[in-house]
Records
---
Amino acid sequence: MRKDFSIKMLKALEVIERPQGAGIKEIAQKCEISERSAYRLLEAMEEMGIPLINEQNPYGSTNQKRWKSIARQSHAPEIQKLIALDNKERLIISLALDNMKLFETEALSDRINSIKEKLVQKRITTVKNSTDFLVSMKGKKDYTGKEDIIQTILTAVDKKTQCSVTYSAACSGETKTYTIEPYTLMEYNNGLYIICLIPKYETTRLLAVDRIQKLEILQSVFIIPETYNPADLFSGTFGIIKDTPMNIVLHFSHKTAIYIRERIIADNQIIEELDDGSIILKFHACGKPEIKSWILGFGSEVTVLEPEDLKEEIKHDIENMKKNYQ
């Protein structure tokens, strides 16, 4: 199926479905294609099982036919699904499919392509390589060599089975092996993570998939607590790191203020407008390493006002950065 065919088909149906139907010129204009291509589009739609009729054109002096859809009369469920999808629904599906690029490893690519083909065949979504929507995957983690681990995670999460994991911690660099109960596979910032319980310590942890060295499914099954909600684990966090919450107060210059106004940095944020166009941003969150990294990314356009210990750490980092250029 060629590029953006489904999109053109949807556009054609918009005019064909009208009570008066549509002539070939109207279809070509709506789909932004030639009349010859419009005829090929109609032929392809009929081959796909979309019931169409044509009749003499009563509007005007030409003998050109008008095309109409009889999908509603035929009660074809597949066609009804296609017609019922609006642009927002197609956007949601397209974005979801693009986000699946994280899983496009050698072991899973065939399964993902199968899903996409089924959606296209069912007239539920657009074909691959649509130019309508784009999800940027720049900066995504490389999961080459982790295909079997990802497959094992998906199986363990689905079957609710304990696993033995060999994991290399980022900060300490230590590699340890222990038992986990994988609750949820999570995507964050173009990376994959497992939310899991470590029975030995009765604590919930977040493990980065790229730092898993080995993962094996065990015999034991587990039950997720009824009170478990993965979203609750990150309530009040700036990103995904949980540590001591802080009251953050930042001053942004007028050059950068416009970008801060456009985004929700935190659910509890407060923005104070100043006369010179700059702003004061206040919010309460935890995750100091992520907050520091975010602040440093604005360079001289931001100043930490509170808390004092964060201000001192930022100053210390800046001094160390200066040494790299001396």
---
Amino acid sequence: MIEIHIGQLIRQKQEEKGITISELARSIHCDRSNIYNIFSRKSIDIELLISISKALDFDFISNYYLPKIKQDNKELSITITVKKEGDKLIISECK
């Protein structure tokens, strides 16, 4: 199993992009101390990771987590059931 230390990966990408800690903090609406806290994390809330992905213009989910899920499970299969109600598409089941 591949271990992912997401905080280290975020730090690496932040440095590669040349974005300051202050700029990243402003982009995700938090203070600088929270950014240093994020860098120390081995795991992270998905909503926060999406915000960071947008701020750094890098898809952490596709680049790190999906390959890990595929490797861990050998085969990844997701079924989504979608219903149309009026003008809306409703996801009624995801497994």
---
Amino acid sequence: MSIKVRYFASLKEKLGRSEDNLAFVEVLTVRDLWGGANPQQSLPDNILAAVNMEYVDLDSRVNDGDEVAFFPPVTGG
């Protein structure tokens, strides 16, 4: 199973990269994908995730060929 993972804003800076192309054998959730891609970094609080450009819950399943994006929470005023 091939999955493209993208990181935006402060996540990109913190991780030192903007994307990963990963291969997994088993079905994953978005939460599992973060752990597999970033074993040294815990999942940040209030992170937003999207699968194929649609916001999803962190327990949503990821399928072969999906693109998963992680965003820090957005603030503004």
---
Amino acid sequence: MSAENHYLDAIEALDSDNREEALEKAYKAVKLDPEHVDAWQIISDAHLTADGKSANLIDASKSMAAVKQIVKLDPTRIDMWVRGGRLLADELGLMFDALEWWQQVRNHAPHEVTPLIEQATILADLGLYKEGRERIETILNENMDVATSQYGRVHQLLGLFNNAVQQNDSEYFKPWEKRHPGWLAIEAKMRKAPVSETTIFMLVTVPVLFGVIILSNFIAGEGLVAFCLTSVVIFIAVIAGMRFTKNMFRTVNKPAFNLLRAMNFESSTGYSVTSEDIRTSVLYMYILQRKPVAWQERMLMIIEEKNKLPKNWQLELPDFESHLDEIGQIDDAEAPFWESDLAEPYEEE
């Protein structure tokens, strides 16, 4: 039986939601023809659930392995590059690997905006605001084509980075620093779950709206003019309440966001930086339970291994200019990013 016939059987099985049979047939197809791109995609698809639930660690890893085979055989498959980036960052928590992955996309598609946006998002999650702003500024400086659906995200990231870089660098929470003040803030709030944005909005805005409605009867009176005036005031109050809520949400839950950054750092490096007291707290469990299954399983493995962050650990980022060599703007070969001096070493205090 040929590889193509096994592939067709795999499609039929996957359409019938028989994932085990689809995988069996697809693996037979790639065994006969290792360069069968479509069969590799069936393998990646079948390892991911169709009902929206996150895959476990084994399935997410196998799906990622298939994606690597696909882009190796056909680097023009932007959809598979996107899937790989999301699997690395969101499902597996390998953010530094995801940064390198998106840089590889730039090597094959240097004019694509998505890799820059994804890199900027990851850098923001890691608290590397200066590097993240450079990614967004590259989009603007090179006058790259931004899809309408991406304008809002670019504008939001740029605003975040501009606000962050104006602050003192010492205020950024650095989880790799054992004695950073951010750890004390986490310990102070670790016994409670974070406050939801909806709760803050209800506590702040609803009383104001209720007061506006009551006072409107005494001040504006009745009639169409009074109704229009009251409606305008309510609209302004809602908009102001939403903006105030967003700012308050970030301020009140800053320790939770700091702990999330520490957990992302642990998942990305494989090193444990969180104390046992914090790790068994209500806040830690609240965040962990809302992560994908593969992410949770991998984090539990990191916790069990108890690998401490080395004192000589260095922050290593990809060479964000490596794609220029692909389009002929760099003549001399450069050293790989892990041998470069782009990043200064960070040590525990």
